[in-house]
Input
Amino acid sequence: MRLLLKVSDVLGDAVEKIGRLAAWVAIALIAVILFDVVSRRFFAMGSSKLQELEWHFHTVLFMFCLGIGYIHDTHVRIDMVREKLGRRAQCWIEILGCVLFLIPFCLVVIHFGAELTHRSWLKGEISSSATGLPFRWLIKSAIPIGMSVLLLSAFSVLFRRIVMLFRPDLCGADGDIDPQDEIERKMVRGAD
Output
């Protein structure tokens, strides 16, 4: 079980680094949007390249940050029943959700996303807009790469929930098995 926890930590750290790095794309996205709005409004200049660049940055931001959202449990949950269940039942729901839905979904999207990217690269696909961006395969590659990051986070969460279910003694006082979260909680409590 300690090995599962260690693997979960390694996967979680990788997803964390990728997500934090990808989050910097938000600054570029904001800059492009501001430039596009100002140039259109005040200088009557417009470019489909800028709009496509906005879409591309948004795609990278979304696809590469899905994993970090799942690792930190910040994704949307619409389940009134799950929240009323105990920790063990919640672990089982998370494990079944990963094994039956999330992991297969990621694998299917990775497979078809890679095919889509490869076909786009072979065709030398460019934007359908006359003044659009070239190298359409480049942005399409964000689909399989982003889903691969989400797959890593799915395995990290899956392994953590297995440990939480079968070796709760490895968990923290409140059932948490992420020592970094425990350290951060102590720091916040100490600051109060």
